[in-house]
């Protein structure tokens, strides 16, 4: 497994993994995946990661700033999504560890039941 920067050409695989998470109804309140341009605008460039196994994207992580106010600088919400066949293999832990190197003081994650 390798953790690398998420690039626009990863979007089809990232979107597919995101849609799989949406389908579980346990990961987000979103009901559909946005278009790349809309999704791209919401995330900080400091932390957009994919986990790959060879050429296959098996997970992704990204940080969304929680506020534009200066007092919240360095606070962001971490999203981590893992492909169905890659769950339980430490991919999420590796992505979370890599996201901690993003420069955010307080990456927080939302947990759904």
Automatic annotation (TrEMBL):
The keyword Transferase applies. CDD domains: NAT_SF. Keywords: Acyltransferase, Transferase. Residues 1-113 form the N-acetyltransferase domain. Coiled coil: none annotated. The keyword Calcium does not apply. Its EC number is 2.3.1.-. GO terms for molecular function: acyltransferase activity. This is GNAT family N-acetyltransferase. It comes from Chitinophaga pollutisoli. The lineage of its organism: Bacteria, Pseudomonadati, Bacteroidota, Chitinophagia, Chitinophagales.
């Amino acid at each position: 497994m390798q953790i690398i920067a998420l690039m626009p050409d990863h979007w089809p695989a990232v979107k597919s993994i995101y849609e799989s998470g949406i389908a579980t109804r346990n990961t987000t309140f979103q009901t559909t995946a946005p278009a790349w341009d809309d999704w791209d605008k919401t995330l900080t460039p400091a932390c957009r990661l994919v986990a790959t196994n060879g050429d296959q994207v098996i997970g992704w992580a990204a940080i969304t700033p929680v506020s534009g106010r200066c007092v919240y600088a360095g606070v962001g919400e971490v999203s981590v999504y893992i492909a169905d066949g890659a769950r339980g293999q430490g991919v999420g832990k590796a992505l979370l560890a890599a996201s901690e190197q993003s420069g955010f003081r307080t990456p927080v994650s939302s947990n759904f039941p």
